Amino acid sequence: MTTKYIFFTGGVVSSVGKGVTAAALGRTLKERGLKVAVQKLDPYINVDPGTMSPYQHGEVFVLDDGAETDLDLGHYERFIDIRATKVSNFTTGQVYNEVITKERRGDYLGGTIQVIPHITNEIKRRIGLVAKATNADIILVEVGGTVGDIESQPFLESLRQLRSEVGRENVLFVHVTWLPYIGATGELKTKPTQHSVAALRSIGISPNMIIARSDHPIADELCDKIALFCDVDKKAVVPMVTASVLYEIPLLLEKAGVAEYVLKMLGLEERQKPDWKAWENLVKEVKRPKPEVTIALVGKYVELQDAYMSVREALKHAAVQAGVEVNIKWVHSADLEKDKGWDMVMSADGILIPGGFGSRGTEGKILAARYAREKRIPYLGLCLGMQLMCIEFARNVLGYEDANSSEFDRSTPHPVIDLMNEQRSISDMGGTMRLGLYPCNLQPGSIAAQAYGVEQIEERHRHRWEFNNTYKQEFEKAGMLFSGLSPDGKLIEIAELTDHPYMVASQFHPEFLSRPNRAHPLFVGLMKAARQKAGITDIDLREQG
Length: 545
Ligand code: GLN
Description:
Blueprint: E1 4-10, H1 18-30, E2 36-42, H2 54-57, E3 61-62, E4 68-69, H3 72-80, E5 89-91, H4 92-105, H5 115-134, E6 138-143, H6 153-166, E7 171-178, E8 181-182, E9 187-188, H7 191-202, E10 209-214, H8 220-230, E11 237-241, H9 249-255, H10 258-266, H11 277-287, E12 292-299, H12 309-322, E13 325-332, H13 333-337, H14 342-346, E14 350-353, H15 362-374, E15 379-382, H16 384-396, E16 403-405, E17 414-419, E18 434-442, H17 447-452, E19 456-463, E20 465-467, H18 472-477, E21 480-485, E22 492-497, E23 503-506, H19 521-533, H20 538-544
Parallel strand pairs: 1-6, 1-7, 2-5, 2-6, 7-10, 10-11, 12-13, 12-14, 14-15, 15-23, 16-17
Antiparallel strand pairs: 3-4, 8-9, 17-20, 18-19, 18-21, 21-22, 22-23
Helix pairs in contact: 1-3, 1-9, 4-5, 5-6, 12-19, 15-16
The structure holds glutamine (GLN).
């Protein structure tokens, strides 16, 4: 069967939820029995987001094969419930890297290397890799940025070329735009949408569908106007008002008949009737008033919540499963060092310390871990959150006052967290951490093993430092259980306290594998312990239910 493509472009402004919209549309197609694959094209010159500051880019989403990718991949995996691979995300940097390497090798036999055709050919080749790797019926390709950006032009040109190469009947262009609201007159404006469509058409692409995003209700006449000015079927103008619950978007697209329209345009038939029961229940459950549990998320990029996108979503999934509403308090770890923000930590029913790099704010996180241990507050540590839990334990239980990670203090006499052996010879920072899926054996009877309910798991990693086994026995004697180990027993993957309601931390990132309908066991464990801490009883849960 011919592979079909849906290309998503963005208009007017970025951050209007193009990724979520594409992911939600993917779900409506999967519900119809079609195999859906995804790809995100990022116009920046970094080879991948792995070396970028979370302030610039938000979270780095790690895939099974260790690819460090855009956070939109997280939306795709969560909404469509797929496991993507490295072909699903590439950047301008990767494209140029490849072309320049070939040029230096002499592959072009003296030719002049140009954006068209060399760069565009490489872009098209990479889009083709998804079809090969996945054998999908439909590939959703999202172009990062906004139409009109200089950076994204080669991508758009490649898509235009692809349309004729694979046949117009196999390609659909969906343009996601934003309708600004003018407060003084109380109206939404379509002009910027018209301009961005005009910009798209000037490079030879006429969108087949426009998804118009807004924070305000969108009147039918406005959709008529967009259809008329932008030369798109009325049925293909989809108003999409910001939803209070992210996971409602597939249902909204379903109601708007988007999947049916898309299939008709692509000449595809649905293979099964969509069954939305589980999603409807999920959304109903999210919206239902429930007793509240407060989690203090102690991080250093908390000003930008996108930096912890998957952690936030995983907390929400777990809350649904535990029958509670999660109220996340975003605590800046550096504040704790200055005696600020403690009210949020002290009033929380659970504390979560996510991943991170560099020493800024680590002392504040260590203070929070100490508070969790001493006051018996449920605690979940992710990657750096495990390392800091161990440092805190070494300092305040074992009495090694100057224990640290050699990441933060190279000359610490007690490097309880140390650089992994295979990392010692590495000088390049990009793509060289311990990345991706690795197996881990669980200690039967431990909190972790009970949470997972199995003996072996596989989780996604992204780190250079590890627990230093020289200290293992001492830690164990003092009450720490290393309940998850790499199969050769050499790497500590999960640490937990034996004398604590729930102080569990992992060297891996469980947040990447959490799904809306399949919350991650370690997050569910935290949420249930926090629920208990909040004094919410079974009766409360039933009465509210
Ligand atoms: N900086 C730590 C390391 O590299 C933790 C990484 C993380 O939290 N993802 O090991």
